[in-house]
Amino acid sequence: MVHHVADHDERSIEGILFDFHGTLAQVEPPVDWVLAAADACGTTLEPARATVLADRLITAGRAGGPIPRRIPPQLAEVWAERDIYAHCHRAAYVGLADTVDSGIDGLAEALYERLLTPDGWSPYSDAAETLSALHDKGVPVAVVSNIGFDIRPHFEAWGLSAYVTEFVLSYEIGRIKPDPQIFERACKMIGVQPERALMVGDSAADAGAVKAGLATLVLPAAEPGRANGLWATLALAGLLSRG
Fold it and tell me: CATH 3.40.50.1000 spans which residues of the chain?
């Protein structure tokens, strides 16, 4: 779904902002996540137990997963500020995982640590092709994310960091999408006027870039490792020939 794409010539898009989770990359499948974290704690889980445990942890609340239906009162404050402060992000998600009795010492922390490693995520299969094509054409790119930890090491490990001009992370700048100021800040950092920029994301928060004057492209999040339709970014930037 495209919002507010101005009726200009095809070269009107001079810079692109990408969301991270659900747009360029996806967290690993839940059972893989639980198996890896348990292994880090010195425990080998049977697949059936890992599946049940993963379901319970997803319901409780996983970073990169659905918003939990209930936040325990003792976690309400850190939950509200999870994308502003790194310590709140950790406390919120470790605290949610701790509400699930796994019987494995240290599992909640191990689950969170998995999030901080590139192995805990999968870039979409068309991310590298899209980012490299933009880089080759001299189109500056910012990754704009509501997040409580540094994702630069992930891009470095995936060989994608050279294609990103700037990382604009909520916990570093103190602004959260859909606040227009985070999009305005990102545009300034890559040297592009908002009306000449495109925001690519997968949520209503990303579509909030419209209020900052950007065109926006909202893509439905795909499964880990799949293509996510990012080729459309190249078309909107005028980088694909029209046959």
Answer: 2-24+124-236
Provide the residue type at 153 as one letter: P
pLDDT tens across 65-123, in order? 889 999 999 999 999 999 999 999 999 999 999 999 999 999 999 999 999 999 999 99
Q: What is the H or E stretch that residue 59 is in?
A: helix 47-60
**Burial letters 70-99, b for 16+ CB under 10 A, else e:** ebeeebeebbebbbbbbebbbbbbbbbbbb
C-beta of residue 236 within 8 angstroms of C-beta of residue 13: yes
Return d(Cα 111, Cα 97) in angstroms, integer.
8
pTM of the full predicted structure? 0.91
Percentage of the chain modeled with pLDDT above 70: 94
Residues 6 or more apart whose CB falls under 8 angstroms from that of 12 comprise 6, 196, 238
Domain 2-24+124-236 top-level CATH class: alpha beta
Structure tokens at 3: 């919002």
